[in-house]
Amino acid sequence: MGLADSGMLQKPVAKPLTWLLNYSRKYSLWMFQWGLACCAIEMGAALASPRYDMMRIGVIPFPASPRQADLIVISGTVTDKMAPAIRRLYEQMPDPKYVISMGSCANCGGPYWDSYSVTKGIDQILPVDVYVPGCPPRPEALIQAVVMLQEQIQNEGIGNDDMRKRWNGEPINVV
Amino acid sequence: MSTTEQPSVPTNSGPDFNPGPDFKDIPAFEVDPGLQRHLADARVNVELDTGDMIINLGPQHPATHGTLRLVVRLDGERVIAADPVIGYMHRGYEKLTEFRTYPQVTTLINRIDWLSSFANEVPFVHAAEQLMEIEAPPRAQYIRTALTELSRIATFLLFLGEMGLQVGALTPAFYGFRDREHVLNLIESATGGRFHPNFNRIGGLKDDLPWGWIAETRNVMKIVLDACDVFEDLVLGNEIFQARTRSVGIIPGELGASYGVSGSNLRASGVDWDLRRDGAPYLAYPELDFEVFTHPDGDSFARYWVRLQETRESARMVLQLLDKMPAGPIMAKVARIIKVPAGEAWVETENPLGQMGYYVVSKGGTGPFRVKIRSASFSNVSILPWMLRGVYVPDVVTILASLYFILGDIDR
């Protein structure tokens, strides 16, 4: 992008420019789909089924690699064996990047809250932007999560601290 | 231009090819005898020393249906050895069941094979019912059978679409998802859950069917039967699909059986074995009139064909069940707090992916002492190292897709 490198973000940015930049970003989210468990089928239904068809709201679900993705959807049970791989591929994504945690297992462990091999919550290893509850969530819930994320992207100020941290890839406080 | 006036363009092939004097000076190196076969197949005239390449397929790859990791050793485009690495979805089911009560275990085991959740519940609930020496009323048995077959249809419709996706056709996937939604709506209206119904209770079912469900199911079964025709024309009749699947990934029947392969994968190898017909009688299957399909070839095409026919047959079975559906209660008399007497029970059923069994050991408490889960996919993928030896890399994807396993069913 170059905005962060040139120091442009430090200055107050004109509002129309902010709006235009955010508007463009929010409708071209390249989504890296990390299908793990049951939720992956519902995510597939949201993406590939003609009834839900998530591409109509500006989500492009087929990046060839995480290096092309803006958004990662962790859908399903994350085990301790899998967690390092998730972290590693998340680190390969270019900034700014967003994370949706889909389903109870990714949120908090879900029905495997007392299992010895399940990571209780993906937020232990990634900063999560939107949590989708449900076991598994319906495809509508995932679409709602993407819409919420798009609202969040639209309202991000170019000049404020959160935004700068995002461009720089620093961890941010998720409210 | 006449034939005599052809320009003499130098070629590097053909009987007159002369590689030049330097070529003969190169000393011939020794080739591994195991490699000779590949060289002969690829018609490589010059013996090049190509080193093996080891690549990882997975653990995150759309073709692996989740988190299967294959460590593949390649010689050029050909697989020399493939080693499945499993455990990325291991959630510790057999340990977790020791800390749950029987109704809570039902919630858990929905998620073993997440595509056909209802079919997972049935063998476990049967095992508990056997130990308690009760039996669900006939209406509950019929509804269970209908919902099991519906989940089979939903599973196979996804397969019929997904398999097209793996050979490079995007359209069947959309059709599969579209028609599957109708079936999921039926399951949802009856049980309240699209995916994980958790509808079985020990001794019966949670609720009776809603009003209008039977009429709606008849309509949807027509849609499913039409969809099967569409898949038969669109995918099975497709020349590219046949080229990609015919004589690819052959499982010989006896070898498959000795590896523990079950279900449609085994029936596609010509073994006429279906637990709904041949096993201990369960649910309403003895009262149904249905056909078991086998295919002699045992390749990817045969597996697709068998699943297509079974989808059609399941739709016919649901229609039969709706016609024969008895009236009456849906729940046997069961104490409010379920305590299962001490004993052991083994129940196996024919799930969409194959033979699914539970060995339940009870010591008289509210929860099981030990549950051993025999899931179909684990045995089905155990044949992968044998199958993938010598195939080309693109065929790995079609073989994985045609075996049709669920990672939760492998790792548990």
Automatic annotation (TrEMBL), chain A:
UniProt keywords, alphabetically: 4Fe-4S, Cell membrane, Iron, Iron-sulfur, Membrane, Metal-binding, NAD, Translocase, Transport
Biological processes, Gene Ontology terms: aerobic respiration; electron transport coupled proton transport
GO cellular component: respiratory chain complex I
InterPro entries given in the database record: NADH_UbQ_OxRdtase-like_20kDa (IPR006137), NADH_UQ_OxRdtase_20Kd_su (IPR006138)
NADH:ubiquinone oxidoreductase-like 20kDa subunit domain location: 38-149
Pfam families per UniProt: Oxidored_q6
GO MF terms, alphabetically ordered: 4 iron, 4 sulfur cluster binding; metal ion binding; NADH dehydrogenase (ubiquinone) activity; quinone binding
Protein family according to the UniProt entry: Belongs to the complex I 20 kDa subunit family.
Protein name: Unannotated protein
Source organism (scientific name): freshwater metagenome
Source taxonomy: unclassified sequences, metagenomes, ecological metagenomes
From TrEMBL, chain B:
InterPro entries attached to this UniProt entry: NADH_Q_OxRdtase_suD, NADH_UbQ_OxRdtase_49kDa_CS, NDH1_su_D/H, NiFe-Hase_large
GO function terms (MF aspect): NAD binding; oxidoreductase activity, acting on NAD(P)H; quinone binding
Organism annotation: freshwater metagenome
Family that this chain belongs to: Belongs to the complex I 49 kDa subunit family.
SUPFAM superfamilies assigned: HydB/Nqo4-like (SSF56762)
Membrane-spanning parts: 386-407
Domain NADH-quinone oxidoreductase subunit D residue range list: 167-412
Keyword Lipid metabolism: no
Name of the featured protein: Unannotated protein
UniProt lineage: unclassified sequences, metagenomes, ecological metagenomes
Keyword Signal attributed: no
Location of the region described as Disordered in the Swiss-Prot/TrEMBL record: 1-25
